[in-house]
Amino acid sequence: MFVTPTPIPTLKKALGRELHRRERLLATAACLLTLLFGFVWKMERYQAREMQALIQETVRHQGDVSWILSRSAERRRARMVRWQSATQSLPPAASDSRDARVVAIQADLRASADVKAVVIPGQKQAAFPAFDHTEFPVSDVPDWGTMRSPAEWDRPFGQIPASEFVPLPPYDLSTLQIPLSSLANPIRPAFIPAITAKLTYSTRYYGAYDLDVGEFSGLHPGIDLKLAFGTPVGAVAGGRVSLVQKKDDGLGLYVIVEHRLASGERIFSIYGHLDTAWVQEGEDVRPGQIIGTVGLSGRTTAPHLHLQIDRDDGSVPHQPYWPTRIPSPAEAARHTLHPIDFIRQFSSELGE
To answer: What single string gives the DSSP state of each residue in 187-214?
Structure first.
């Protein structure tokens, strides 16, 4: 069979139309990619400006109690609405180990909600639990330096993926006193660990409420750890729960655990601003046992854990020490211990 060949002019026209069609597709794709890259670049700049503005606002209002209280109430209301809805919407089972842990935590809380401590008169109390060793109250923290917006910072513990947590940063005053403005303008990848450390140790031992200052600049006798709302908090050592108390101001809901060292000295670890307490007065705890979860109770502007280590002052039950003026290191040592040094000392002695 004889097939009539297509005339060359017709082929040229068809080829030209196909070339034009592909050119239009490439031009459209290039435009879309340009728009996408432009959007991402502008969002990054917007988030960086938003973070810098928040930092500047916080620095500008350092020491302004009325601003701190109003800001605290405003953010607390917004957060509680989000967190309550998020907690209620958690699935009954989850594939991620962190989500599964949160589900288990909620089950334990529901099961123990109506349990009351019962003290029988004349009953002999068991031997005091062993101090054993020390542990940090948390092992991992959110990588705050990588987060750019309040929507990321305000997520509760159960909504932050495990990939966004990092090991608890070292408590290094040379790093903690680097001005935040020099790390955040602009934010570079090399600065992220320092930003995370500064935000994690938001208030230092006897420090002022200022991210750039060191120790013995304020009245704060413990250390504040910025953590996500609902983060489980572990006991720093073995001991017995001395007090579980809730106040509208100050430390809010807090737990005090008594520890007895090999020397016979009595030490008290204090965990403040909790959302829930998982232990009762008189209960024995082991190192690392969860005693509660991080919250917003008391006087605070963001979820964090107040960790304080007190020496025994003879009061029964023990009450958290709080100075009326900035003490000298020697005076501070008569009432409290540096929480980080305390944990490091008794952890390293056991080779941990």
So the answer is: B-GGGHHHHHHHHHT-B-TTB-S-TT--
Torsion angles phi and psi, residue 57, rounded to 5: -65, -40
Comparing 39 with 195, which gets the higher pLDDT? 195
What are the DSSP calls for 52-70, one per residue? HHHHHHHHHTTT-HHHHHH
Strands of 128-222 (E only): list them.
Answer: 140-142, 165-167
Which residue type does 288 have?
Answer: G
The single residue listed with the structure tokens 């809805």 is 85
Inter-residue contact 271 to 307 (CB < 8 Å):
yes
- Please state the φ and ψ torsions of residue 61, each to the nearest 5 degrees: -105, 15
Residue 170 one-letter amino acid: P
Residue 219: CB atoms within 10 A of its CB come to 14
CB 338 within 8 A of CB 258: no
Instruction: Indicate the pTM of the whole model.
Output: 0.70
Please write the tens of the pLDDT for every residue from 53-111. Answer: 666 666 666 556 566 556 655 665 565 555 555 555 544 444 344 455 555 554 544 44
- Give tens-digit pLDDT for 174-192: 999 999 989 988 889 999 9
**Do the Cβ atoms of 106 and 84 come closer than 8 Å?**
no
Q: What is the largest CA-CA distance in the chain?
A: 116
Task: Please tell me whether residue 276 adopts helix, strand or coil conformation.
Answer: strand
Tens of pLDDT along 256-296? Answer: 999 999 999 999 999 999 999 999 999 999 999 999 999 99
- Whole-angstrom distance, CA of residue 25 vs CA of residue 21: 6
Closest C-alpha among 281, 302, 293, 326 to residue 73: 302
User: What does each C-alpha distance from 17 to 6, 10, 28 come to in angstroms?
Assistant: 16, 11, 17
Strand, helix or coil for residue 107? helix
- Per DSSP, the three-state class of 281 is coil
Phi and psi, residue 257, nearest 5°: -115, 130
Q: Using CB atoms within 10 A of its CB, is residue 238 exposed (0-12), middle (13-18) or buried (19+)?
A: buried
On whether the CB atoms of residues 252 and 297 are closer than 8 A, the answer is yes
